[in-house]
Amino acid sequence: MYFLSGWPKRLLCAPRSPAEAPLHVQSDPRRAFFAVLAPARLSIWYSRPSVLIVTYKEPAKSSTQFGSYKQAEWRPDSTMIAVSTANGYILFFHITSSRGDKYLYEPVYPKGSPQMKGIPHFKEEHCAPALNLEMKKILDLQAPIMSLQSVLEDLLVATSDGLLHLIHWEGMTNGRKAINLSTVPFSVDLQSSRVGSFLGFADVHIKDMEYCATLDGFAVVFNDGKVGFITPVSSRFTAEQLHGVWPQDVIDGTCVAVNNKYRLMAFGCASGSVQVYTIDNTTGAMLLSHKLELTAKQYPDIWNKTGAVKLIRWSPDNSAVIVTWEYGGLSLWSVFGAQLICTLGGDFAYRSDGTKKEPLKIHSMSWGAEGYHLWVISGFGSQHTEIESDLRSIVKQPSILLFQFIKSVLTVNPCMGEDRLYLNCGEASQTQNSKSSSARADHMPSRGKNPFADGGLESQGLSTLLGHRHWHVVQISSTYLESNWPIRFSAIDKLGQNIAVAGKFGFAHYSLLTKKWKLFGNITQEQNMIVTGGLAWWNDFMVLACYNLSDRQEELRIYLRTSNLDNAFAHVTKAPVETLLLSVFRDMVVVFRADCSICLYSIEKKFDGSNTSASVQVLQEVSMSRYIPHPFLVVSVTLTSVSTENGITLKMPQQARDAESIMLNLAGQLIMMQRDRSGPQIREKDSNPNQRKLVSKSLPFCPPVVLAQSVENVWTTCRANKQKRHLLEALWLSCGGAGMKVWLPLFPRDHRKPHSFLSQRIMLPFHINIYPLAVLFEDALVLGAVNDTLLYDSLYTRNSAREQLEVLFPFCVVERTSQIYLHHILRQLLVRNLGEQALLLAQSCAALPYFPHVLELMLHEVLEEEATSREPIPDPLLPTVAKFITEFPLFLQTVVHCARKTEYALWNYLFAAVGNPKDLFEECLMAQDLDTAASYLIILQNMEVPAVSRQHATLLFNTALEQGKWDLCRHMIRFLKAIGSGESETPPSTPTAQEPSSSGGFEFFRNRSISLSQSAENVPPGKFSLQKTLSMPSGPSGKRWSRDSDCAENMYIDMMLWRHARRLLEDVRLKDLGCFAAQLGFELISWLCKERTRAARVDNFVVALKRLHKDFLWPLPIIPASSLSSPFKNGKCRTVGEQLLKSQSADPFVTPEMDAGISNIQRSQSWLSNIGPTHRDTDIASSPGPQMQDAFLSPLSNKGDECSIGSATDLTESSSMVDGDWTVVDENFSTLSLTQSELEHISMELASKGPHKSQVQLRYLLHIFMEAGCLDWCVVIGLILRESSVVGQILSIAQSSEMDGEMLQNIKTGLHAVERWAATDCPGYKPFLNIIKPQLQKLSEITEEQVQPDTFQPVTMGKTPEQASPRAEESRGSSSRASLSQSETGSNSVVSRKEEDTTQADEEEPFQDGAYDCSVS
Q1: What is the mean pLDDT of the chain?
Q2: What is the rounded distance in angstroms from the CA atom of residue 164 to the CA atom of residue 209?
Q3: Omega before residue 486 within 30° of 0, cis
């Protein structure tokens, strides 16, 4: 199809006076010359290069006699021009070559350049000829001339006195009388009585007319606005032999243009629309085919203000039409009415600052060669503006503009294979066949354009859906172009790696891989052939139909891509008549010839020695002359595997993808001829396979059947895919303004026998927003191209005339677009009660990345149509569509996405069809699809009372907490608060069984009110219910809470958070608890302080230990076998494993917050004092000396100064190498032998640790529990990390302060349980338990001392927030222990705000997903 490219160019023809201003342009039949008329001069321009050759000036005296020039018409052989003038004269000019062999412009080459020496036709092709114009004859018709038209060897002239003159080109009237229009009978069709009604008015005359060769008659527009078609009944052209038909509903015709290929007549109307008529073959009546009109939807401000249609011009290949209007503007439409370009909107009509431009007014226009250019004579706006600077007058003057076009190969070579998308080596390199490549030529070397998606997207679906805006531009070889412009055909191979182009003579091809052109070595061979029927690729061969000039013979030639381009390597088959069209299907070539016959050839590869060639043999010929009135009317011919029977019902299944039928586009009518399989079939065993193959390829064809009307393009594929049979066996049609159609096969389910009454195919129409250039079958996509515009007017200052063109016009580029069509087809099937087929088709495409979008689009479109319909719909489709979508797992998402993109007013209609949103919400929860459930919550919030949405929000919040969907949790907290703040109802009395809010709770959720729709004191604390009852969190203790209604809603959320934390602790899910606290900013320490004796107790140490090992991926310790028989050891000594553990346990764990106030010296002392007792208690053997001890300790204190968790772990690794049993090891013991034997132990030690991430998290949790005084948890974590210092710390805390005896008792019993478990199940723990045995004994001593219950105070809960948060100075003790003991003695102190902030920041770090390797600083 045609697309504008770049800016238009202005030709230099500055008129010096109004008499020289151009007003009409007309190209000669070959489109090499253009005649340009001014009121008193005739100029001839050459098209390439665009130069003025000769001008004839009318002398002033004769100019007043003739009047100004009006119209020009060329003689078919371009030797004469007839010009009509205002006063009724026709002037005949002869064009002669002036100086023999001399040329006006010649290309100049540098000396010694081999270019273009011995080329035949060189001068004619390359040089602008020097011509003379002389007036030979003047004919006076004595009435103003309205229209003149060249018809074969005559000139037909219509004058304003109602006469039609037939004039010979030599200026003679041939003795024939002029025909009076009032004597020509007119009727509605040719079947009416011969008399017919005469026009009957004395003053009726023809205003505009055009001859149609394929209909053999004239389309005419009369001065009263009526239109008609006049046809000679017999070959003689006299009044008695003419008959006219006219449509009765057109009364405002202004102009007419005829399309010979599609037999269409386009009549412009005063209303601004174009009515396109065709002639009914049977009755001869004029039938309205379609209209070209701007819609109010696309052009709301201009659609009915364009004025009358001024000019209509069909493109040279008849595939597009240009329309202009009285008040300016230009539009381009495809043959059956798809709009491609219109300059009345967008950047054409508005400047970048939003002001409106004056539309371009076009006085006359004519297409250039092959449609690459449009010559336009323009004047911008009115020429009589009141204040006119010199600058503006230059711009406003009429001038010649050249618009440049890019056109899709679809228009050039319509019968080129199919369009595909391949994936080459994992790249989404898009290789449509030539249908979507675009060839382009202009005054510069022409460029063939071809879309290639750049690779790199994994999914083929995505790469095509996103579309790639950039084109791969290939410059056509200038050597080839110079003598063969314009390019007439181009083709791309199946893999999208090779392109072939054919111009005036010969052809050339290009490889996208090597980026090189291959041209004929012998230039005479190139200039000797003219490609007539197009060219196509077959594997590595180019197949083309050409005319051999020297032998005057039509030929079919095949060239191999890899060999040199030379006739010596070509396979040539002679053809009896000219080939008009050619296409390739698998290994068959189908050609359509000028005698209306179709010939099928089989093509196969031959290897003779080193040469590869292809041979062709005729399979069969089919004459179509009975069905085709004129060979020029055939637009395309293709072989397809499509048949009315689908593959299941064929007698031989392997024929399913054979060449089953010929598709012929005859002037927009798609005609199908199927193979006739009703005759005797050859059985498989009767013949050899080759013969059988040939016979099946040469079966006769049935009589033709018309499949569709108004068809522009056809796509099919010969590939097979069992999964997507519907899409691959379908036939796709592009029908212009009517959108697209698909002829879809219907398959019985599970290969059942099909119903006899059901047809096996169905034609479904659907609308599409782009002009289709290619169909991707498996991807269910249509690819197209669209003109995009860029404004550059802001770059120019308005001070020179040249730049005005860039200001008036935007720069045009072509971009690729794509569109999904699957939802249209599914909907059409559902409308026709073919739900089963729709389901089969949808299931085959369910894997496409945009399939959810397809379902959503279908639901949305049906909803919009039905819910906004004014009249009641008798048989609504929405329930059917809803039921259809439920067949897919995406049902819930589809509905909610559709609802949220639709206005609220339509929701009731939607949910009446798909179901209650509350039920859908619960289905989402059951299916664990929380994000979709959250979307339904927004709908519930709008459709239900607040209580219902809060109740559902609570359910979702709890589930999200349970599943650790933290983002969703944060949204839900916001949502619950928003519901509370937006409510008008008064809050009911607050429930009593609730826990106090911690002062460090959700600070940012304060100052909002919430009403609890019901109190639920009786709900058990840890239960979660999916019923629709509101489950309120409640706790067993804490009977008072703040009655301040502002906190109610924060309390409500806090309750749920507390309850969740309690459940996590009860289930020993410490890792989840850490993530939960970090992600939601939960105040863990203050909450643990309160829950110390309840939820934060460890009930079963062994279970907790096992669970932590599992959660943190921490390996259970094992005893290395070799350590039992270690070379250094004597019987009395402990095993190395114990010592390793012992030395490891010597590393205490100090947290930054504990030591916040201690100086470095103090801190190192505290390290030493911590370590001292452990060594005294555990070392049985004496140390070799203090120096050794110091050497061991010095790195410890240095490391301690860095004060980071990371350093603590480094320390453990380094110190684990130190062996405590110095008595056995000799001082001069070589390190080598030590490492050899100890290597195992070191590796065992490393193996007994978990991941670094887990270590950071465990140490962090240890710190949290220390702060909160949950000593039993500290012990469990200490056991896992195997750090005896932790137990030592707890002991010292227990000694220094009055401790909760219950907790100590719990720790004691817990550790005993662990001992028993280690003895039976996990001996790896025994060495460590032996190390901490002395501390354990101390512990039991302490617990026995604290027998009386009076010695310790129970922790009092429920202080008011003011009491509960002491000042910062108080909460910071002089040492960490002091602060700990203070927080444990029942004052329920909470870490001060500042410290808590750092805590919170630290707390979030280790548990952020993916950000674990941080060290707390």
Answers
A1: 75
A2: 11
A3: yes
| CA–CA separation, 728 and 725 (whole Å) | 5
- Whether 527 and 547 have beta carbons less than 8 Å apart is answered as no
Please state, as a whole number, how many other Cβ atoms lie within 10 Å of the Cβ of residue 1017. 10
Count Cβ neighbours within 10 Å for each residue of 1402-1415 and write b for 16 or more, e otherwise.
bbbbbbeeeebebb
Can you tell me the distance from the alpha carbon of 289 to that of 266, in angstroms, rounded to the nearest whole number? 10
Question: Quick check: 426 and 455 in contact, CB under 8 A?
Answer: yes
Instruction: Measure the CA–CA gap between 507 and 518, rounded to whole angstroms.
Output: 9
DSSP 8-state assignment for residue 1390? -
Question: What stretches of 1205-1283 show up as alpha helix (H) in DSSP?
Answer: 1205-1215, 1231-1247, 1252-1268, 1271-1281
Using an 8 Å Cβ cutoff, are 1053 and 1002 in contact? yes
> What's the CA gap between 1092 and 1273, in Å, rounded?
10
What is the structure's pLDDT at 1037? 33
Residue 622 CB neighbour total at 10 angstroms: 16
> Contact 28/366 with Cβ under 8 angstroms?
no
Q: Find out whether 1409 and 1388 touch, Cβ atoms under 8 Å.
A: no
> Per-residue confidence at 1179, pLDDT binned at 50, 70, 90?
very low
Q: How many other CB atoms sit within 10 Å of the CB of residue 916?
A: 12
Give the model confidence (pLDDT) of 33-70 as tens digits: 999 999 889 999 998 888 899 999 989 899 899 999 99
pLDDT band at 893 (very low <50, low <70, confident <90, very high): very high
SS3 of 1203, please? coil
Which residues have C-beta within 8 Å of that of residue 167, sequence separation ≥ 6? 90, 139, 154, 155, 156, 157, 173, 174
Q: Identify the DSSP state of 681.
A: P
Which of 1237, 1218, 1265, 1240 has the alpha carbon at shortest distance from 1383? 1265
The angle formed by the CA atoms of residues 1152, 1156 and 1162, to the nearest 5 degrees, is 100
**Encoded tokens for 1055:** 């309750």
Q: Are strands 253-259 and 242-245 parallel, antiparallel or unpaired?
A: unpaired
How many residues are there in the chain?
1417
Residue 727's φ and ψ, nearest 5 degrees, are: -75, -35
Q: Which amino acid appears at position 676 of this protein?
A: D
Q: Cα(299)–Cα(314) distance, rounded to whole angstroms?
A: 23
What is the spatial distance between Cα 258 and Cα 266, in angstroms, rounded to a whole number?
6
Contacts (Cβ under 8 Å, ≥6 apart) of 190: 243, 245, 283, 284, 285
CA angle 719, 722, 725 (to 5 degrees): 70
877 pLDDT exceeds 50?
A: yes
User: Can you spell out the DSSP letters for 399-447?
Assistant: EEEEEEEEEEHHHH-----------BTTB------GGG-EEE--SSPPE
Cα angle 1174-1176-1177, degrees, rounded to a multiple of 5: 65
- pTM here is 0.76
Sign of CA dihedral 806, 808, 814, 816: positive
Task: Give the whole-number percent of the chain exceeding pLDDT 70.
Answer: 69
User: Where is average pLDDT lowest: 342-356, 667-681, 880-894, 1361-1375?
Assistant: 1361-1375
Q: What is the rounded CA–CA span in Å between residue 926 and residue 928?
A: 5
DSSP 910-951: HHHHH--HHHHHHHHHHTT-HHHHHHHHHHHHHHS-HHHHHH
Q: What is the CA 893 to chain-centroid distance, rounded?
A: 20
| Terminal CA-CA length for the chain | 67
Q: Which residues contact 553 (CB under 8 A, 6 or more apart)?
A: 547, 574
Band of residue 775 on the pLDDT scale cut at 50, 70, 90? confident
pLDDT at 1267: 87
| pLDDT category of residue 442 using cuts at 50, 70 and 90 | very low
